[in-house]
Structures are given as C-alpha cells and as structure tokens.
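thought: fold this chain, then report.
action: predict
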Amino acid sequence: MKLNPVIVMRRNSDGTGTFFEPDTGVCINVNRTGRRIWEYLEAGGDRGGIAADLRQICKGPISPALDAEIAAFLQSLADKGYLID
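observation:
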C-alpha cells in the first residue's frame, strides 16, 4: 500500500489535516488521527504498525475497535484513490 503521490495533505493549525486532490479540486478534512495515519504512511510506515504508533502517542483511552477503525479509514482512502497498491 502506497500513498497516491498526486494527493496533497496539509496539516492545519489545529492538528487536523486536509487532503487535496489537484486534478479535481476536491478537499477532504480529517481529524488528528487521520492526519497522523497519513503522516505515518508518508514516512514509510506500514499498515501493520499504525495501531502501535497511535497507541504510543495517544494520551487518552484507546478504542477497543482501533484495528477495525484503522481498516475502515484505510479502505475509505483506497476507495477514493488516495492509496494505491
């Protein structure tokens, strides 16, 4: 799984992120967790390490459904074409 190099992610001042697709002009806002996942993958991390990375930086309680939530987020990115094989 790789990030689509066409997609631009901007970190917002509040810690959230905005994905921008230059070909269509579409912008999608994501929360801090979504931004962190993107940055983790951008730095060369793999799907298997995302949950461990989030657990390491999280200061609050972790959702018991974290793995399922990560899978759903990654699938939504893949469905939009933001992730490629």
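thought: worth noting. The beta strands are 2-3, 8-11, 17-21, 26-30, 83-84.
final: tokens above.
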